[in-house]
């Protein structure tokens, strides 16, 4: 990754306080997003809080019938270096009552307020500027609902290539016309994006959104982000910024600001970025908590979808997360995520050493700067690119030899053949990493049809 730009003053920052009008989004919403009706019950929940109201509205269970009467748990403290140093938490009767009952689709108020505060600290976006937060069952739940709110069956969509396979399947199920936007070591290619937009066929409906989401571990530079945002304004589209590894950045340079942060600084009005954050990678994967931040009309459409599908995200998991995170404070959360980043950087370095020992000469790769994956290109043939297809080498030969990874084709919008592979380093011990890559090297040699090693691996470190 190239170093991000260090002087944001050079970027003609506008520091916008304006936002796109609510009416602007009416034409962006899909037919489903426009026509989906709110739940006749859930939409009235806020009225129950009006002073003096006796509510006969909802079929909420009487809380005296709930069998859980108390909840106490322990969590490690970010302020201690000892894993054995734990803090015990007990939900108060009021907190437990809130956690066990139905709640607003957007989320329980204390957790929502924590999310608003985090976005101000992390991205400089203040509550009351015309954007909202919505809690989901992980960020993928919110992405699914956002796509259905914005995209109609068969619509053209600009999409970063490669991108996360879970997001691709949502677009594919809608039979969208996926238009690949190239990426390189600096992130999404603004030149590729501009070329696509300037040469857009007049008979084709314009693309209304671009999904930014890739599995490569590359962090887009500040310059690229600014260029893409300016193109969003120039060609009038929305950016879906899925950023689950934002708090797992361990690059050597300062982490570039998010699109969500930058749009306020460089565009004449905000409202072109819908951001998705996940607590799965930094707090708990099984609690399934994520949140979206962005234009209120889009989040309203997501809310109506939620009311008529999952109803809400678990109140109890939100309350448990809030209990811990609020006790840490934002400083404690920063310490915690910094510790996680250091942990994954060390795992990355072990994997890098194993790559150098066993795969130098057999694969090409760019060192990741965030997350928990390596994205590398197999060198299976010197004849032509089509012969370097990782699918059979990984699913067949490598699996037979006792090592499993993901062929890169599952991350390409149009499922084309590719030599690329994604491999995770989050769980494996050092011994497993070295043995796994030794097996992968043997698999590559076998797939190449070589009788002996062509490239001598480097000496052990």
Automatic annotation (TrEMBL):
Keywords: Aminotransferase, Pyridoxal phosphate, Transferase
Location of the Aminotransferase class I/classII large domain: 132-439
Keyword Transferase applies: yes
MF GO annotations: pyridoxal phosphate binding; transaminase activity
Cofactor(s) demanded: pyridoxal 5'-phosphate
Domain of life assignment: Eukaryota
Alphabetized SUPFAM superfamilies for the sequence: PLP-dependent transferases
GO biological process: alpha-amino acid metabolic process
Matches recorded under InterPro entries: Aminotransferase_I/II_large, Class-I_PLP-dep_aminotransf, PyrdxlP-dep_Trfase, PyrdxlP-dep_Trfase_major
Family membership: Belongs to the class-I pyridoxal-phosphate-dependent aminotransferase family.
Protein name per its UniProtKB record: Aminotransferase class I/classII large domain-containing protein
Species the sequence originates in: Leucocoprinus birnbaumii
């Amino acid at each position: 990754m190239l170093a991000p730009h260090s002087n944001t003053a050079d970027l003609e920052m506008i520091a916008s306080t304006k936002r796109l009008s609510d009416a602007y989004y009416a034409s962006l919403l899909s037919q489903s997003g426009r026509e989906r009706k709110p739940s006749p019950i859930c939409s009235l929940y806020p009225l129950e809080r009006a002073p003096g109201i006796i509510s006969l509205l909802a079929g909420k269970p009487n809380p005296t019938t709930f069998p859980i009467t108390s909840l106490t748990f322990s969590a490690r403290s970010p302020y201690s270096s000892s894993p054995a140093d734990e803090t015990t938490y007990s939900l108060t009767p009021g907190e437990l009552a809130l956690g066990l009952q139905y709640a607003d689709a957007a989320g329980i108020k204390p957790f929502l307020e924590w999310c608003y505060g985090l976005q101000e600290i992390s991205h400089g976006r203040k509550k009351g500027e015309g954007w909202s937060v919505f809690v989901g069952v992980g960020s993928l739940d919110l992405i699914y609902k956002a796509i259905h709110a914005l995209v109609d069956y068969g619509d053209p969509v600009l999409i970063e290539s490669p991108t996360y396979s879970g997001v691709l399947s949502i677009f594919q199920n809608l039979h969208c016309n996926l238009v690949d936007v190239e990426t390189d070591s600096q992130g999404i290619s603004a030149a590729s994006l501009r070329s696509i937009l300037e040469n857009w066929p007049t008979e084709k409906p314009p693309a209304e959104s671009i999904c930014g989401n890739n599995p490569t571990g590359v962090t887009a530079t500040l310059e690229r982000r600014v260029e893409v945002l300016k193109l969003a304004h120039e060609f009038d589209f929305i950016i879906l910024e899925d950023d689950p590894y934002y708090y797992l950045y361990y690059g050597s340079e300062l982490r570039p600001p998010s699109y969500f942060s930058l749009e306020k600084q460089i565009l004449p009005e905000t409202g072109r970025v819908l951001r998705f954050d996940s607590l799965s990678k930094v707090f708990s994967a099984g609690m399934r908590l994520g949140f979206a931040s962005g234009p209120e009309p889009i989040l309203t459409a997501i809310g109506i979808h939620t009311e008529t599908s999952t109803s809400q995200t678990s109140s109890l998991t939100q309350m448990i997360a809030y209990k811990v995170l609020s006790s840490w404070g934002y400083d404690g959360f920063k310490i915690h995520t910094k510790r996680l980043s250091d942990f994954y950087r060390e795992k990355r370095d072990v994997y890098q050493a194993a790559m150098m020992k066993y795969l130098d000469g057999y694969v090409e790769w760019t060192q990741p700067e965030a997350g928990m994956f390596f994205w590398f290109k197999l060198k299976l043939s010197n004849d032509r690119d089509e012969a370097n297809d990782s699918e059979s080498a990984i699913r067949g030969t490598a699996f037979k030899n006792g090592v499993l990874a993901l062929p890169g084709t599952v991350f390409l919008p149009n499922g084309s053949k590719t030599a690329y592979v994604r491999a995770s380093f989050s769980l494996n011990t050092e011994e497993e990493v070295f043995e796994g890559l030794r097996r992968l090297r043997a698999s590559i040699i076998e797939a190449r049809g070589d009788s002996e090693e062509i490239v001598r691996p480097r000496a052990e470190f």
